[in-house]
Amino acid sequence: MTDVPPGGGRPRFRLGFLTHVQGRAGATAAYRNAQELFVVADELGFDVGWVAQHHVPLGGGGLPSPWTFLAYAAARTHRIRLATAITILPLEDPVRLAEDVSVVDTLSGGRVEIGVGSGGSELEYAAFGRDITRRRELTSEGLAVLRRALANQEVGAAGFTIQPAAHDFTDRIWQGVFSGPGARYAAQSRSNLLLNRATYGYDEPTDEVQRPWADAYLAAWDQPRAPRVGLSRFIFPAADRRTALAQIGPDVLAAAQRFAERGAFPPGIDTDEALRRFHSFYGHPEEVTEALRRERVLPVATDLIAQFNPAVVDQDAAIRALELLATEVAPALGWRPATAPDSDLAGV
């Protein structure tokens, strides 16, 4: 949860980073580098480290088994929270998923959060024998079972509850959404809200499109606890704008061209338009900070989640970007690093 800084004012937001576990030298290097980012982020005071689940390889890799990865990250870190954005719920057995989540939560001392969503890859759904036309229904059904399991209620059969028993997940389940109705449904489902780094199929800037979704979520929220809004953004601070562009420009353009082939972006897209479509924040830390101050959803976000995807940046550049985020960009926006675990379960 957020807390109020000394002297009052805007509650402290949590700073996170999200990795899609990509690399140019194969899975072994990509996984090793992503684990190193968790260690670095932990030392820098980031609040949450997030991973995305992909069963079909991305350009440069991808992570099909996030909970195995996060169990290893739990052993290498001390206080950073461990989360998915997202676990593709229709492709999981929700009872088995709850067991994995509870095991990693126990091993980590209560540091786990789980973001779920429906995904959208026809190939992934076919590989797992699921009907993609039912993805919203399957997500809703799976979430209901997952929530019951993580509340230590009977699931699957009379008398069966998961082990180890889950600790309180009331405010640790997130839903990724792509519409206003989806945001209202997340609120009605008692889930925290996850907003993607970019919107597809819209010409308007991402934050203009998503702010009404966030407002719809907050208007529909009727739980006693405070609502939480996670804002994922492509943020890449560097020494200057030219240095940043050299690292991210080619990959962002290539990704935008792939999106254009699927009709999500217009054809003939160039690098500037690709960066705009991915709602990118890049350049010198002061430039990034100033741009984020104009971000329309950030004022209602409780979590700012930085990612470099669709760029696959060099490891040294990725580490430097995390350092600049934690020491220059985020503090200028009012964030301060965490110094201790925010769970009573620490040390389990």
Automatic annotation (TrEMBL):
One Pfam family of this chain: Bac_luciferase
Domain Luciferase-like as annotated: residue spans: 17-298
A cellular component annotation (GO) from this entry: cytosol
Membrane-spanning ranges: none
Entry GO MF terms: monooxygenase activity; oxidoreductase activity, acting on paired donors, with incorporation or reduction of molecular oxygen
Sections of the chain in a coiled coil: none
The UniProt record lists the keyword Amino-acid biosynthesis: no
UniProt entry keywords in alphabetical sequence: Monooxygenase, Oxidoreductase
InterPro entries in UniProt: Bact_Lucif_Oxidored (IPR050766), Luciferase-like_dom (IPR011251), Luciferase-like_sf (IPR036661)
Domain of life: Bacteria
PANTHER family membership: BLL6902 PROTEIN, LUCIFERASE-LIKE MONOOXYGENASE
Protein name: Monooxygenase
